[in-house]
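#lab-general

N.A. 3:47 PM
ok so I finally got the sequence cleaned up, no stray characters, all 119 residues accounted for. can someone with queue access submit it? mine expired

B.Y. 3:52 PM
send it over

N.A. 3:53 PM
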Amino acid sequence: MNLLDLTNHITQLVNSDAGLRDGLHAKWLYVGIPETYPCITISEISFADDKEEGEYSFNLSLWYQNTTGAAGELKFYELAGKLKALVSNSNLIAGGSWVSRNQPDGKTKRALFACSTYL
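B.Y. 4:20 PM
back already:
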C-alpha cells in the first residue's frame, strides 16, 4: 500500500456516491490547506511500528468555503454527512472520530475524519 493506492481507493469511494462526487471538485491534496473549495484532502498518514502489519492511519478532510450564508452552511453539512456515511460504511476503513471546525477566516470549514484501515 502506498499513497497512490490510498488516493485511488478514496477516489473510488467518492465516485461511488453521485451526490458527493457532483458536489466536489476532483482535487486531491496530500498535505496542507487546499487552494480551491470544496475538496477532500488526505494527510498525516502513519505507518507506526506499534500497529499491526498492514494497518495504518490517516486524516480525511472535507474543505468547504461558505460564501452563500445559510445555503452554503447547509451544503457543507450535506457533503460532510455524505462523506462520513461513505467512510463509515466502507468495509476497508473503520474507526476514527468526526469533527467540524471553522477556520480563522470565518468562511472556510473543515470536517475531519481520523481513519484507520487495512488495505
